[in-house]
Amino acid sequence: MENEKGQIQSAEIVKTESGRQYHVNLAPGEVAPYIMLCGDPARAKRVSQLFDQVDLTRQNREYISFTGKYKEMPVTVMGTGIGCGNMEIAVIEILQCIENPVIIRVGSCGTLQEDIELGDLVVTTGSVRLENVSTYFVPEGYPALAHFDTIWALQKVCAEQEFRYHTGLTACSPGFYGGQGRHVPGFPPRKPHLLDELAKLRVKNFEMETSVLLTLSHLGGARAGTVCAAYANRTKNSFISPEQKESAEMNCIMAGLGALVELSKTDQIRKEKNNDKWYPWLN
């Protein structure tokens, strides 16, 4: 669908009079309350192909979004592109379009612990904020925590689907090479022992978006979490095969979609019971 034209109303809050956001090209009413974010736009398209129906497609710059239904749940999937700066724009502009959504990032990562195999999934409980995008909103010591609802829902689906998964802390880097301690000829990292330091702190994995997602979602009133498929094992210096990558990506997608469905059902019961502290194990 072509981008809709409209005069931006302010240099501070860059949206049109109807609320259409400058970068993601979405407006109120076009974003569902259950949202999946993917760095890779091709992954977002792959997710949309699993929907029962797609009601809206929007694309602007690297951002591509699909809104529709999955198992009767209203859902939006967005491809955000790579990195913390892109995630900042995505979260802030999404939260100008809808209040209090659930947002789950479905991504890829490198592992920092020897027991995490290529293709395994990692459910994030919190993120080590190695980036500086979030520090323009919160102090350095501010925690980046996944919402409890996303943690238990992702764990439940992974267990039911018998996916190999791990739960713990995720390090969020501002880059792929130096920021993750990669030693590329001609580009020596300033922190050559970063991997060992994080591994000793029992950090599970490395990626490039989650701490911004969690921090800004908490500020903006969204419940947010992350599940990533392990594409690289940094301790063994190994990388996933194309065949295994496709399978791992689909497992990650199904974990994310399943968790969103689980939370959609939970939210409905909470509404019926007028009890936002209700959980499935409290029956």
In short:
This protein has 283 residues and is α/β, with parallel strands linked by helices.
Number of helices: 6
**Largest beta-sheet characterization:** 5 strands, mixed, barrel
Sequence of strands across the biggest β-sheet: 5-9-8-6-10
| Helical proportion, percent range | 25-40%
Average residue-wise pLDDT: 96
Per DSSP E runs of 2 or more residues, the count of β-strands stands at 11
Gyration radius, rounded: 18 Å
Q: Give, in order, the helices and strands.
A: EHEEEHEEEHEHEHEEH
Folded structure, characterized:
With 283 residues, the chain is α/β, with parallel strands linked by helices. The chain contains six helices and eleven strands. A hairpin with a 2-residue loop joins strand 3 and strand 4. The radius of gyration is 18 Å and the shape is globular. The mean pLDDT is 96.
Topology diagram in text:
Blueprint: E1 34-38, H1 41-48, E2 53-60, E3 63-70, E4 73-79, H2 84-94, E5 102-111, E6 121-129, E7 144-145, H3 148-160, E8 165-172, H4 194-200, E9 205-207, H5 210-220, E10 223-233, E11 238-239, H6 242-273
Helix pairs in contact: 2-5, 3-6
